[in-house]
Design a protein that fits this description.
The complex is a heterodimer. Chain A has ten helices and 13 strands. Chain A is α/β, with parallel strands linked by helices. A seven-stranded mixed sheet of chain A has the order 8-7-6-9-10-13-12, sandwiched between helices. In chain A, strand 9, helix 5 and strand 10 form a beta-alpha-beta unit. By secondary structure, chain B is α/β, with parallel strands linked by helices. Among the domains of chain B are: 9-43 and 213-274 and 402-452, FAD/NAD(P)-binding domain (3-Layer(bba) Sandwich); 53-60 and 281-386, Polyamine Oxidase, Chain A, domain 2. In chain B, the strands form five sheets. A seven-stranded mixed sheet of chain B has the order 8-7-17-18-19-16-20. Chain B has a five-stranded parallel sheet with strand order 10-2-1-14-21. In chain B, strand 7 (85-89) and strand 8 form a beta hairpin. In chain B, helix 1 packs parallel to helix 8, helix 4 (104-116) packs across helix 5 and helix 5 packs antiparallel against helix 6. The longest helix of chain B is centred in the last third of the chain and has 21 residues, at 421-441. Chain B is globular, with a radius of gyration of 23 Å. Classes of the chains: A alpha/beta, B alpha/beta. The interface between A and B is medium-sized, with 27 and 29 residues.
Chain lengths: 335, 453
């Protein structure tokens, strides 16, 4: 609303969309929210729950032209640095390194790894420390600021959309899509592209927010951190993510949930910001707040043990055998 | 999906429903033509701004942040911070709900009705209100209000006029707490199509209600055909075939009409399926917007007046909720006068009707005359559908389907339903989706149009 603390008053261009999985609009509006974190625009946004696919999606959503507006210069993915985030950076680095070990276990010394939506290159830097120097690490990101930040660490990063960047087909051993698929306009199209970039048998690891969680249930009407209004356009549970892989012709090897305190912390923060709580209290709930991150890590760990952790982690493989599934053409969504 | 050549879908009326339908058809890449009989879009969703800086609508409208977000105009709206209702009884206001609960007579009436339950389903609105609220509350508040609003005895109205959107004391308490905690006018009993939530509250466009329709119209790549009343709807084999506009027939694949249903019945040619709609009636309304010095003249934003010695049944001080609708230090009271086309209220000159209202407002606001700075009047012959018991069965059937394949009747007048703006939006989307599905599965139309030429 207009009264919000809005840093960028430029009006966004919005477009209505249907569910990207089924192409239909058989959906319930479950949340109305604002950009509680960056106040990038005065707009309000609506999240829908598709009754057919259980996908949660944003509609109307910003058009492609509006991306620079909704990803401001201080967006955390552009500069998640140890200097700025201190202990959180160290804990996250440790956790993420553990998560990367699994899909990297069988990689050869000359493996090619592509991080799609690499941001400032956080995960590529972890991989550089984790694996042999002979690994060929590459990133792709559409945002020039992210590319610049990643290249500053000496990483090879291709600017642009993975659809358009000229990359060698059937050449990558591992692709990463970490906290990225939810930002995509057409996740299926991107997965199909990644599939053709992977060599037969190559793997894709997807990490994304999980909507089948307690934090989602509690905060789904407005403040859930995973909405990240208006930047998360498609949000999944295990059912819809599995269906996405199926349509992209990728075989799911592993689909589990993981611990993350971030959505808990940001759900509470969003509520406090929205209800105009004092600044000192709001600041207790941020990526810099070790206490709240620690408390909710333990809390979410309990839920993860029951299979309802805040984050979904899926590893899928491009099939080895030549089959009809290997010759997929991009399906078109019906209106 | 059907592959037969697709004629355009004709949309009749460029009000909120017609424009929502047009945008949805455009999004679905379905061809359409949007016909508006008048010289302006928006119909009853129009708003006005006078030279003195007052903004007003056809009656006071409220929308929600959810509707604003769905339309993509959230950034052009302001939060409504405050909303309240009260009933004026025996010279004093009883606020809703807690003030009414403070009246022992009314509280006892409601409690007794809840405890006793109803023996059989009500057959009239009078029975329904008595069963819902008890005899005293129904006699003093609910029945007089519905009769003053509709101009019809409650014993002749269908029980469906008493249907509520939501209920429950727990929800009411939640809403009250949320309103205080968030300083937002959390919507209550506003929308039946989507769940109520403490996170859905009232907002209002900075530039007035017209923003909704102007925004929708600006997104259409096909122009609106203004001053193009649809003269006939041609039906063949109980399926729409064509329309006649400016004397020419245009083949269509389907029709979405926002026309009042009694008008729609007269437009249709080639079937008797809609003849029953000619009996359906709407209540005309005169809205008098009175300008005053000061603010906070009424004890609540909306004041209901069930007693017959007032010419209006409702007074609204919209600037209490939306301060930007009146200049600083000024306010506006909107008086809703139920009437019939051509009667004394309908034909009364502006200054005279202002004087009539002022005379009675002075009983509520003692210094109203000293504060008064003039008025403006809006009239509409189609403010609300009247649910007469005599056509209730047909009304319920019509709510399910028009009975003519390819003909959808949308919007408040088109659906003949007591629905507010957010419901109009969601229901129009649903009906557009249903029509699109029908087009996908319907067999190709036969080519018998020549018979009408």
């Amino acid at each position: 609303m207009l009264e919000s603390l809005v840093e960028n008053t430029a009006s966004l261009q919005l477009e209505e969309v249907s569910c990207c999985m089924c192409g239909q609009s058989d959906a319930e509006p479950i949340a109305v929210g604002e950009d509680f974190e960056y106040h990038s625009s005065p707009e309000t946004f609506l999240a829908f729950f598709c009754r057919r696919c259980s996908l949660v999606y944003l509609s109307p959503r910003p058009t492609a032209d509006s991306l620079p507006c909704i990803y401001p210069a201080n967006y955390h993915a552009f500069n998640f640095s140890a200097e700025e985030f201190g202990l959180s950076y160290k804990v996250r680095s440790w956790l993420e390194t553990r998560r990367l070990r699994g899909p990297c276990r069988d990689l050869s010394a000359t493996a090619r790894i592509l991080d799609v939506g690499c941001g400032d290159g956080f995960h590529l830097r972890l991989l550089r420390q984790l694996g042999p120097s002979s690994w060929q690490l590459e990133g792709v990101d559409a945002d020039a600021r992210a590319v610049e930040a990643a290249r500053a660490s000496g990483l090879v990063v291709h600017p642009g959309d993975v659809q358009d960047v000229d990359l060698l087909l059937s050449s990558y051993d591992l692709a990463l899509l970490i906290m990225t698929v939810e930002h995509l306009a057409d996740p299926l199209r991107t997965l199909l592209r990644i599939r053709e970039l992977l060599r037969p048998g190559g793997r894709l690891m997807v990490i994304t927010d999980n909507t089948a969680t307690v934090d989602f249930k509690l905060f789904r009407r407005r403040h859930w951190g995973g909405y990240h209004f208006p930047r998360h356009w498609n949000l999944f549970d295990s059912k819809s993510l599995r269906a996405l892989f199926g349509r992209a012709g990728l075989e799911v090897e592993e689909l589990t949930t993981m611990v993350s305190p971030v959505n808990w912390v940001y759900s509470i923060r969003n509520l406090l910001v929205d209800w105009k709580a004092p600044e000192w209290l709001v600041e207790r709930f941020s990526l810099s707040s070790s206490v709240s991150l620690g408390v909710f890590t333990i809390f979410d760990l309990c839920w993860m043990l029951m299979g309802r952790g805040a984050i979904l982690r899926a590893i899928a493989r491009r099939p080895m055998a030549s089959s009809a599934a290997n010759d997929l053409s991009e399906p078109t969504a019906e209106q | 999906m059907n592959s037969w050549p697709r004629n355009p879908i004709a949309i009749l009326g460029a009000g909120l429903a017609g424009l929502v339908a047009a945008n949805e058809l455009q999004r679905r890449s379905l061809p359409f033509r949007l016909f508006e009989a008048g010289t302006q879009i928006a119909g009853l969703a129009r708003s006005f701004r006078d030279e003195a800086g007052f903004s007003y609508d056809f009656g006071a409208h409220f929308i929600t942040n959810r509707l604003a977000a769905a339309l993509g105009i959230g950034g052009r709206c302001r939060d409504v911070r405050f909303y309240s209702e009260a009933v004026w009884l025996a010279g004093r206001p009883l606020t809703y709900p807690w003030g009414l609960a403070g009246s022992p007579k009314l509280l006892f009436s409601v409690l007794r009705s809840k405890l006793s339950g109803s023996a059989r389903p009500p057959t009239t609105a009078a029975d329904a209100f008595t069963a819902e609220y008890g005899s005293d509350f129904a006699r003093l508040v609910a029945i007089p209000l519905i009769e003053r609003w509709s101009g019809i005895p409650a014993s002749e109205l269908a029980p469906s006029v008493a249907e509520k959107i939501s209920g429950g004391v727990v929800h009411l308490v939640q809403v009250s707490v949320a309103r205080r905690l968030t300083a937002r006018a959390v919507a209550h009993g506003y929308c039946s199509e989507q769940p109520e939530s403490i996170h859905v509250w009232h907002v209002y466009p900075e530039e007035g209600l017209s923003t909704l329709c102007e925004h929708l119209a600006s997104h259409l790549s096909t122009g609106i055909e203004m001053q193009s009343p649809v003269e006939r709807i041609l039906v063949e084999d109980e399926r729409v075939k064509a329309i006649r506009v400016h004397g020419k027939e245009v083949e269509v694949s389907a029709i979405m009409s926002t026309a009042p249903v009694n008008v729609l019945a007269k437009l249709v040619e080639g079937t008797d399926a809609l003849t029953f709609l000619t009996r359906f009636r709407y209540r005309p309304m005169t809205f008098v917007n009175l300008r005053f010095e000061g603010r906070g003249l009424l004890p609540a934003v909306m004041l209901w007046l069930p007693e017959a010695d007032y010419p209006f049944f409702r007074l609204t001080e919209a600037p209490l909720s939306m301060p930007w609708l009146a200049p600083d230090g000024m306010t506006m009271l909107t008086a809703d006068l139920s009437c019939d086309v051509g009667d004394g209220i309908w034909t009364m000159p502006e200054n005279q009707i202002g004087e009539l209202c002022l005379e009675h407002i002075a009983r509520i606001v003692p210094d109203a005359r000293q504060r008064y700075r003039g008025c403006s009047v809006l009239r509409t012959p189609l403010a609300y559908p009247i649910f007469l018991a005599e056509y209730e069965r047909e009304r319920r059937e019509f709510a399910r389907s028009t009975g003519v394949a390819g003909l959808s009747s949308i919007g408040r007048n088109g659906e003949f339903a007591h629905i507010l703006m957010e419901d109009v939006y969601w229901r129009t989307l649903r009906r557009t989706s249903e029509l699109a599905s029908w087009l996908d599965t319907a067999p190709p139309p036969s080519t018998l149009l020549a018979q009408h030429a």
